[in-house]
Amino acid sequence: MKNSIRLQWLSHFKALSLFMIILFCTATGYSQNEISISGKITDSNSLSLPGANVLVKGTKTVTTTDFDGNFSIKAPSNGVLVISFIGYQSKEIAINSQKNITVKLTEEAAKLNEIVVVGYGTQKKGDLTSAVAHVTREDFVQAPVKDVGQLLQGKVAGLTVTSSSGNPDSGSSIFLRGTSSISNPTPPLILIDGIPGGLKDFAPEDIETIDILKDGSAAAIYGTRANNGVLLITTKKGSKKDMKPEISFQQTTSTQTIVKSPNFLTAAEYRDAIKRGIIPAASDKGASTNWIDEITQGNISTTYDLSIRGGNSKTNYYGSVNYRAFEGIMMGSDNNSLYTNININHKMFDDKLQVTFGMNNQDNVLNVNSVGNSFNGVIYRNALIANPTAPVLKPEGANYAGDYYQSFAIFVNPVADLKNSEGERKTHRTRSNLGFIFKPIDGLTFNLSMGQVSSNTTRGYYENKFHSSNLLGGLNGYANKGSEEFVDRTLDFTTQYEKTFGSGHHITGLLGYSYFETEYENSSQYAYNFATDYFTYNNMGAATNFGPTGKLTYLNGAPFATSYKNSYNLIGGFARLNYDYNGKYLLSGTIRREGSSKFIGSDNPWGTFWAVSGGWRLDREEFLKNVTWLNSLKIRAGYGITGAAPGGYYLGLSQLGLSGVNNSFYYNGNFVQTLSPFQNPNPGLTWEEKKETNLGLDFGLFNSRLTGTVDVYKRRTDGLLFNFPVPQPPNLVGTTFANAGVMDNKGIEVSLGYNVIQNANVTWNAQINGSYNENKFVSFSDDPRYKSANDYADFGSTGEPIQQSTHRLQIGQPVGNFYGFKVVDITDQGKWVYDDLNKDGKITNDDRQVLGNGIPKYNLAFNNSVKYKNLDFTVTMRGAFDYQILNFDRMFYEQNGNVERNRLKSALDPVFGKAVLTESEKYNSYYIENGNYWKIDNIVLGYTFKGNTFKFFDSFRIYGSTLNTFLFTKYKGLDPELSPEGVTPGNDYRDKYPTTRTYTLGISATF
């Protein structure tokens, strides 16, 4: 099935590729007489500029000046040369048949003129008054990443991007400036070309820039969706300048290995433990099996990307086809996607009206081995704990069901569960947007943008009668089939007026209206006991649905079919006013009034969110003009209020629902569910509000070779949503969802960039990003109606058989504290000795204490990009510091209680050098470790062939790369890089898909 899908998609890809090549070949071309041109590039003081770029406009013909600033190039006699150099204004020089040209460049802090995307518009980077980070495709992680978020790893101070699973279906986790919610942790708002979306909506190869609105003054214009920051993603577009059509092709081939496997006993070591009397002799089953090897596979992943772009000042276009076939390192976890994308821009009516259109389609097919999900983590767990002396297949003639050896009382055969199940999830997603930009007079712009995102998913999963769950349940096959659909619709209308008046006064005013609505529906059905496995999940009506007793029953406490539908909308009006005087004094103010149907039943469905910020460009002051080493210096200050809505729907209303199966009753041959209340009304429900102050400094020194940004922030989140206990009666339910909690975050972010070397043959650019964040939970409630019985609440779970919370959220303490018993020693009999905190001679729950914290306080990244002639080399390094991790593998597998199951080798080592542990699994401080790590993450080495090296290409590049390359840490687990989200950070769960190291070979070409 997998191969047929791949062949079908490859045929589609080839057909689309052929179409785009034909389109290119039929495009109008031109040829002109070429002449040889030589010249020299200098600065304003006539000093040579080695390494300056000289480009023939509208082509890919480019050269650089030598050590003395000289260059030579071939170009059309009536063409144009574009001269550029870091720290200087670019110039366009008409050739007019000249054969010798000397050009002087004027110094400038070029980075300040970069166009940065902000809320509902753009600004020059030098005019920003808020904390905004700008990342271009040249700075992205250069490897076959799983989604757009991974492009940003280590690139932005204060933005933590983690990808802690090797599962091809998993995505990146994005965390900005600390925890801001305790019941509804959400990622930053993601807008792709102005339309809400996700990190997997586009192929990473189609992304041009990503702008991150980090502080409240930048994000407040997005109101209730901006509490955790905003990512503004811009996709590639056609050229706004005249150019011939350009076709680009990229292809990568990758393979993955597990970064680190837990160190369990081999069959030989297991038998040695039997000799030592630790494991019973009857546990030796006579075989030697590496169970991890049995469930993993050799893997080759490939990506193909073909794009075409071109156009002129009137009409431009960009189109692409992208096929991604990712083979997981675990069997049954392959993931294949096909993206098609097109963007068209056209101007008319003397350029007064611009029409933009974009459409992106994604088709995804994912292998699954669990209901509705991807890889089943329990399979990985069973492979770890399986007896390494047990065989995969049953011994000849033994009385075991199916072909696989099973020992249900001890472990479940993971290979059997993989082979005796099959499943697939298919998703088709379409994004479309249409925009009109009308400029009737100078300075006045009307912008109407409409977008829709729709997604349809179907899923199916089947277990035959030899699957462990059916063998244990006495069932003859189990099938589950479902579907889900959602559609988002967006409309934004803005009016902007820009005016310069008087002596250096400049204003830009913006008024806007925004409407967003979403609908989501889901249906699922299951059935069991089939006469044949042939139809799997595609013939649900063939099931008898009778349990082992011959009676109609429920399975796992769920009904045979479920369905539901949710929808909500969001309406907002907003305004922004920017003012600057002579480019030196900058002011900005925004306000947004917004309401949501999520608050139906509430007295406060509307919220007001506003911000103000200012900047002072000191480098433009007279008293600094003669400081030759200073190119730019700006201080910023901003204050903004953003909001967050709850994740649920209609939370202000009292709601009734059907009871679970445990509360149903059996009547006349059927189970009957009862109707009961599950939510109290709360007319006072409203938004969480985050109030943030940010102070910033931007600078450029030594011809802007050294640039930097420093931000200091403090944010308070008021009205945190939480389920508070309430008395019954008068309340129908024992808890009410209400706004009451308060949380603080404060921190520092530093970003430095330095052009270490810049000459004709060698360039070396280095960047350092660092951040510090400190969090404190201030209070649960200052509302007398909602008071917690304690000043704390416990969260997290270890799972069976320990069944204990792992974290405590307590007033005056930071979010993410581990809470439990502290180990101080071990007895000669291998029993734990705990800290008797209250000195009462007994170990009770009162002796539990803070054992660490799972959120890193410090994050650091160091990025380097080196070019020598046509050779390029980049390295991305990053790390996190001052935090702890609960090592679930050690907690569960570093013990000898389950005598036949496999265990970590360290389980046989004496604890503290005294005695081997004899207790069963326990949660305590012994398994909480320092999580500090440093990764040499992305390494890329490439070579670009330019000019006439290849007849049919303008440029051709080959490269090799690695991702997640080297890890330096004292953590004993597999990978200390964990998402810091939520109130239970630092839990390194035992069932997670192992992290992987990726090796890639790739080519890219333009023609």
Quick synopsis:
The protein is mainly β and 1007 residues long. Among the domains are: 31-108, Immunoglobulin-like, CATH 2.60.40; 112-240, Ferric Hydroxamate Uptake Protein, Chain A, domain 1 (Beta Complex); 524-562, no CATH class. A hairpin with a 4-residue loop joins strand 34 (688-701) and strand 35 (706-725).
Write the CATH fold name of the domain at 112-240: Ferric Hydroxamate Uptake Protein, Chain A, domain 1
Shape: globular
Instruction: Count the beta strands.
Output: 52
Classified in CATH, the superfamily of the domain at 112-240 is TonB-dependent receptor, plug domain
Straight-line N-to-C gap: 36 Å
Mean pLDDT: 87
Helix coverage percent of residues?
A: under 10%
Query: Which segments are poorly predicted (pLDDT under 50) over 5 or more consecutive residues?
Result: 1-9, 11-31, 554-558
At CATH level 2, the architecture of the domain at 112-240 is: Beta Complex
Class by SSE composition: mainly beta
How would you describe this protein?
The protein is mainly beta and 1007 residues long. A hairpin with an 8-residue loop joins strand 19 and strand 20 (335-348). Mean pLDDT is 87; it is low at 1-9, 11-31 and 554-558. It has eight helices and 52 strands. Helix content is 7%, strand content 47%. Among the domains are: 31-108, Sandwich (Immunoglobulin-like); 112-240, Ferric Hydroxamate Uptake Protein, Chain A, domain 1, CATH 2.170.130; 524-562, no CATH class. 41% of the residues are buried. The longest helix is centred in the N-terminal third of the chain and has 25 residues, at 2-26. It has a 22-stranded antiparallel barrel.
